[in-house]
Specification:
Blueprint (H helix, E strand, L loop, with lengths): L16 E3 L2 E7 L4 H13 L4 E8 L2 E9 L13 E2 L4 H14 L26 H5 L20 H10 L17 H13 L3 H13 L3 E2 L24 H8 L4 H7 L9 H5 L8 E2 L1 H12 L3 E2 L2 E2 L3 H8 L3 E3 L9 E3 L27 E5 L3 E6 L4 E7 L10 H13 L14
Helix pairs in contact: 1-12, 2-5, 7-8
Length: 420
Amino acid sequence: MLQKTPRSDRMMFPLPITTKAGQINGYCDSRFREIADVFAENFESRDEVGASVCVMIGGTTVVDLWGGKRADGTPWERDTVCVVFSCTKGASALCAHMAADRGLLDLDAPVSRYWPEFAQNGKEDALVSMMLDHSVGLPGIRQTLKAGGACDYDDMVRLLEGEAPFWKPGTRHGYHGLTAAWTVGEMVHRSTGKRMGKFFVDEVAKPLGLDFWIGLPAEFEPRLSMIMPATTRDPTSRMAVAIAADPMGPAGRFALNTGLFDANDRAVRAAEIGSASGVSNARGLAQLYDPLANGGRAKGVSLVGQESLRRMSSVSVASHEDATLMIPTRFSLGFMKSVDNRALPNCANSSLLFSEDAFGHAGKGGSIGFASPAAGMSFGYVMNRQGDSILLNDRGQNLIDAAYRCLGERRGTTAEANPP
């Protein structure tokens, strides 16, 4: 039976919290106790197995909770990590903006300036910005990938060089769920001389002290929780219908042609798949976005300047029908923006609701990391039991809603922000 956290005038309230799925540990500022209650409710009634949630305000951690069990039944500990799927894209996009901030990468330049071999078969006029905002036209590859193909970085680059786009670059957008690993990855590689995983660890993870890897070293495997697939699938979702109707279309190639991508395969976690194989926890995601919520700087480390932050937070593309996900989506250069699809039919769990200034990235099954600069807030949520969702399901969304309520805001507005 859920034991509610007691109300208190003290800065912190007592932990652990006991739920039917196991204990929740960590700490939580009493002003943010609603997040702890929602987190506990996830274990009680929303199929949560193991998870963590972390919130930072102005560089100070106000919530850092973890609980439940890893997939093998052992407790989810403070340092437990798991694959965060497309939350990795936020880390990769940050690397590209850092390269741009240093004058190494011009986001408005032709891709061919950095990657001449890419400029063929209709991609000659593609711009670097199109690689980041999912408009370059390569959401999938038509040729069937070999088993483990996503782990072969050089081969994936070669395939993308020869691939014809599904649409003229820049004329529409469709989520590059897997291929962003190499479209964005090669922009970082070609401009900095470092592959994405190396650049990220050297320039972001180590300076900030993050538990976050794009290419997990073997020594950290004992801390990992395997991923548990969603217990249900909706065959009537817009994306499912599109895949069934045209397996060779953008949605079909994205979903069906992954080279048997399996997050529970050690080879996938070890690979530098900058769109999908990142490994972290909620603390790592919140710490990643902390500098982006607070002027581009944290822990004495300057990542990006104001112009880069502006481009990260500004909508670059928006459409009533993403060519891959088949739902309305909005993206800045490399990050998801808030989108409300709750009123649309066949769009269950296809929304991402946070304030308009905010930017971040959701991951398969419902994980999320983002920055909300108006509140100075960064947020991370990671879980091992996936939900049936294209964007967020109620576990992550309810935590986000609680965070904004604790700040004195209604979700989607920042006018009443009142950070502690």
